[in-house]
Amino acid sequence: MTQLPLGDWQSSLEGMEQALVAALAALDRCQAGWESAMARDMAPASPQPVRDYLEDRLREWDARLLAATELAASVEADLHDRELAVGRWQSSIHQWQNGNQSV
Fold this sequence. Notes:
The protein is elongated, with a radius of gyration of 40 Å. With 103 residues, the protein is mainly α. It has helices spanning 6-41, 47-102.
């Protein structure tokens, strides 16, 4: 009977084991790096700078909303003026047509 190449298999298994050990070590280093980075990011921040930042953003949005309100009011006024002008033109044309028909 032919002998199986046990030596080759054994060396292949040892190579795979070394590759797995190296991969696990690399994953452990990566995980340790992430844990330290996440620990820094999750550290409680002082609430005052955050509150100041949010207050500044709120004031900016209030200013934008006020500007938008003023713009909407001016557009509404402009549309109202145009509506009145169109009404006057329609009335004038109607009166002109009625005046021409009676002659």
